[in-house]
Write a structure and sequence with these properties.
With 143 residues, this protein is mostly helical. 72% of the residues lie in helices and 0% in strands.
Length: 143
């Protein structure tokens, strides 16, 4: 498993736990970094901090593209995976869109429902198409 894939999984763990417990993901991340058991990779920190910093924008995109689903109705794993992948799509120019989407789909296949990968693919594809039109590479920001 690649270092970035492990970092995505760790970021997913933090975001999912924070969501499940109803606590601040940034605070939970700080606790996990301090405990370092297991260590939190720098890229996992970037992902969690980026999702926290851009959560309103990200959640708005999810809500706008998740036809027939509200954000609270989504399985927690799917919600966290969408947040990570959308952050990467919009704010990580060094991550190709296809990689961000494929990584989310792979995690969904192993950690979520049978239907999750297809659902995530539809939402992420729509966000990627929108971001390509509205946010060309030069307009993307690094976190």
């Amino acid at each position: 498993m690649s270092a970035r894939r492990k970092a995505r999984k760790r970021a997913l763990d933090v975001l999912f736990e924070a969501d499940l417990r109803g606590i601040d993901a940034g605070g939970l991340l700080a606790d996990r970094v301090t405990a370092a058991d297991p260590p939190v990779a720098p890229y996992a920190q970037v992902l969690v901090e980026g999702v926290v910093a851009h959560q309103e924008e990200i959640d708005s995109l999810i809500s706008g593209h998740a036809r027939g689903w509200t954000l609270p109705r989504l399985p927690g794993v799917d919600r966290a995976l969408l947040r990570i992948a959308i952050f990467e799509l919009l704010h990580c120019p060094d991550v190709p869109d296809a990689v961000a989407i494929d990584e989310a789909l792979d995690l969904a296949k192993s950690l979520s429902t049978d239907e999750s990968a297809g659902f995530l693919h539809g939402v992420l594809g729509a966000v990627a198409r929108r971001s390509t039109v509205e946010l060309p590479t030069a307009g993307r920001s690094d976190f």
